[in-house]
Design a protein that fits this description.
Blueprint: H1 3-22, H2 29-41, H3 45-65, H4 72-86, H5 88-110, H6 113-138
Helix pairs in contact: 1-2, 2-4, 2-5, 3-4, 4-5
């Protein structure tokens, strides 16, 4: 297999995985994706270990820089999702979290503009306190 064919195959595989994850049913998305992964990839021990290690490293890196503005929290979320590919309990928890977040978003959308402003100010105050606490803690 040439390098160009390998990249094309990797690109198609990545696109298929994204499509399966995107089109999954809320509340089952991560468990169904995990099942899809097992059916299509098999379970090479080296692959499973490397995914686990990379997931843990992303979580640690995300937590280490998470209080800074930027991609810290995103790294931790990606790491947790990678662990969800290998650990059924994490996939189950991610499905539950997704459903709960969707409920909160639906409730927020139904609020009047006044309450939306109150919620946004409260969330902003929490973020400001966390940034201030991180600043005091590390500097």
């Amino acid at each position: 297999m040439t390098d160009a064919n390998s990249r094309e195959t990797f690109g198609k595989k990545l696109k298929k995985e994204f499509t399966v994850l995107r089109d999954g049913k809320p509340g089952r998305r991560f468990r169904d994706f995990r099942k899809f992964q097992k059916e299509t990839e098999g379970s090479s021990r080296a692959t499973r270990i490397s995914i686990f290690v990379v997931g843990v490293l992303l979580i640690v890196a995300g937590l280490a820089i998470g209080w800074l503005p930027g991609p810290g929290g995103f790294l931790a979320i990606v790491g947790i999702a990678m662990l969800g590919r290998e650990i059924p309990g994490i996939a189950w928890v991610l499905d539950g979290i997704e459903v709960q977040i969707r409920r909160w978003i639906d409730r927020y959308v139904q609020l009047s503009i006044g309450w939306k402003i109150v919620v946004a100010l409260f969330a902003g105050a929490i973020v400001a306190c966390l940034v201030w606490a991180g600043w005091k803690l590390f500097f």
